[in-house]
Amino acid sequence: MSLGDDPAIVRLGALPWGSRRLRRLGEAICAGEAPPADCPRYADVMLWYDDLAAAVQSVLRALDWTSLLHDRPPPELTSRAKTVDTLREKLVRKPDHPLGSIQDVAGVRFECEMTLEEQDVVVQAITEGFDHPPTVVHDLRTHPVHGYRAVHVWLRLPQGRVEIQVRTHIQSAWANAYEAAADVLGRGIRYGEPARHDAPWVEGLVHGLQQISLRRGADLERLRQEHATRVLDLGMDDPYRAAVVSAADRADLVARQARIAADEEEFLDALHDVEDLMRKAHP
Fold first, then answer.
1. How far is CA 22 from CA 16, 19, 40, 102, 191, in A?
2. Are residues 154 and 61 both part of a single domain?
3. Which GO biological process entries does UniProt record here (predicted)?
4. CATH code of the domain in which 39 resides
């Protein structure tokens, strides 16, 4: 059975508005006008998408991820529907995309401490669980967007569209810091637009944050993945093979893991400091 057939999702029924009515509502939102009388209210549409996102989140939360993520901390799952301001921003930026075709009006985030390969496995489990083809997967690790790296799964359900963002702990920390910076410097920096502050240091800050993700963040994830691959190659997951691993190899694994953990902690602490600073500047 597809995860889309879960009662939490099915109980919502099919999306009650057609594409034409949603398009007209989107045009009204874009223009900052009241919607026509025959259009749904914005509050009703957002409540629907909020319920849809929450339903998908609950379905994912109920799954047992330990078989894929093993001893990792449980994934953090959150959901939301777009606010009217962020939706208007997207509609203005993409005038050829009517409201009904906006993929991320309903959004779910799956964030977890994991390797890149484990991230791939999670994405595959979600995609196949909802009986969707691989074409719904959008890998923003190989094609980052202004520093943003993650993997998105675009669901198309009878109840509406949902975007699931699957992020490692490193990708998540950077995204949160950059989002906080966008609240202060202008949300346009998320799309490559100039910051709304013309101080000479602002452009350098935005560029620096993007490079931190593209270089240091990606490098840390590569090192974690290489270490995990080395552990498997030595057979440390097999008690019989692990018993014959040399003391030197064991010591090397321990040392590498300690260095990776220390480097990641330093990276995450720095990003959390940036996020806190920006939150204070934009309460």
1. 10, 5, 8, 11, 25
2. yes
3. guanosine tetraphosphate metabolic process
4. 3.30.460.10
SS3 state at 162: strand
Burial of residue 94 (number of CB atoms within 10 Å: 0-12, 13-18, 19+):
exposed
Q: State pLDDT tens for residues 222-275.
A: 999 999 999 999 999 888 898 999 999 999 999 999 999 999 999 999 999 999
Residue 123 near residue 178 (C-beta atoms within 8 A): no
Helix/strand/coil percentages in the chain, nearest 5: 60, 10, 30
Any idea which residue has 């890149």 for tokens? 116
Residue ranges of the chain whose pLDDT lies below 50? none
Overall domain count for the chain: 2
Length, in residues, of the chain: 283
Q: Tell me, yes or no, whether 157 and 181 share the same domain.
A: no
Identify whether residues 57 and 69 lie together within a single domain. Answer: yes
